[in-house]
Design a protein that fits this description.
The protein contains ten helices and 15 strands. It is of the alpha/beta class and 315 residues long. Strands 3, 4, 5, 6, 7, 14 and 15 form a seven-stranded mixed sheet that branches.
Length: 315
């Protein structure tokens, strides 16, 4: 069976590529579903963290091992107790980059309606993280929202916050990502914060909610300064520590929140809005490539991540 796994070079460095001799799943339990993968999406932050031995990577002794959570496949077999899907349905699941996925009926997955492009659904994992974040931020009608980071999660969060009634600004240092945000048009302000850009564009005591998906070390005090009194800051990017000046936070009576992954309700809400055309992920799909080209994609993700945005493997 084909599968994409993180592996070790002889010098101890990590790489990720497809292997073709992985053991296939065994017989199904009564509550299990088996799918044949059509597309899978690269989860940029999580998978890069694993490649560079980040703060939540798998240990060397566990390798080779898969890691991914954006899989779109066709149901080819179901257990005797399964009720949510039938053979032939297309589903998104949080399965790995694997040719055949097997999971329980209570797993993180959703049946895809005909209105959803299966290739677009291969980015539903990261987009659902954005959904979870925006719900966690509790955006209210008319509030000012700042999204820091213009990757897939940040771009999707801008669309969702706008649908929730927020007035959204998005910032990044990557011109291509800023161009995507301007093309989508959900953000009122799209700011380049490279160099002195933060000082030029981000005004203190402005934002009711700030969603930080960039995870740049040492930014916490700047984020707090940009928040209104009793503003909310949601951290979702992987980081070892959050460090800020207590008196500054106290002066703003700040609320700092941490965001989890996502659940089936987040996934269902995202799927509903994409099916209605109210959220689009297609502008992020920069690379749609054969799964056999996975190693080159992951070499870029490890060494030059700014060159990637949305990557979908065709199986």
């Amino acid at each position: 069976m084909r599968i994409i796994v993180t592996q070790l070079h002889k010098d101890g460095s990590r790489f990720k590529s497809m292997v073709t001799d992985w053991e296939e799943p065994g017989p199904l339990a009564p509550n299990q579903i088996k799918t044949r993968t059509h597309y899978s999406g690269v989860t940029n932050g999580t998978e890069r963290n694993d490649l560079i031995r980040g703060n939540y990577c798998k240990p060397d002794e566990a390798l080779p091992a898969p890691w991914g959570y954006q899989n779109v496949g066709e149901v080819i077999e179901i257990g005797t107790m399964v009720q949510k899907v039938k053979v032939g349905d297309m589903v998104y699941s949080s399965a790995d980059h694997v040719e055949y996925a097997v999971f329980d009926e209570n797993f993180l997955f959703t049946k895809l309606p005909q209105e959803v492009d299966p290739k677009e659904a291969a980015l539903f994992g990261m987009a659902s993280v954005a959904m979870r974040t925006c719900r966690n931020a509790n955006i209210r009608m008319g509030e000012r929202v700042l999204i820091v980071g213009g990757g897939i999660i940040g771009q999707t969060a801008a669309q969702i916050c706008t649908r929730m009634g927020g007035q959204v600004d998005l910032c990044d240092i990557n011109p291509e990502r800023l161009a995507v945000a301007r093309k989508i048009g959900s953000a009122t302000g799209v700011f380049d914060v490279s160099g002195n850009g933060w000082t030029e564009h981000i005004v203190d005591f402005t934002y009711d909610a700030i969603i930080d998906v960039a995870g740049v070390p040492g930014m916490e005090n700047k984020l707090i300064a940009a928040a209104t009194t009793r503003g909310r800051i949601v951290f979702i990017a992987g980081r070892d520590n959050v460090c800020y000046n207590f008196n500054q936070g106290q002066g703003h009576e700040i609320c700092i929140k941490q965001n989890s992954h996502f659940d089936n309700s987040d996934l269902a809400n995202l799927c509903r809005l994409v099916a209605k055309g109210q959220i689009t992920l297609t502008p992020y799909m920069r690379d749609i490539v054969p799964v056999e080209d996975a190693k080159g994609v992951y070499d870029k993700l490890r060494d030059t991540p700014h060159e990637l945005l949305g990557t979908v493997f065709v199986w």
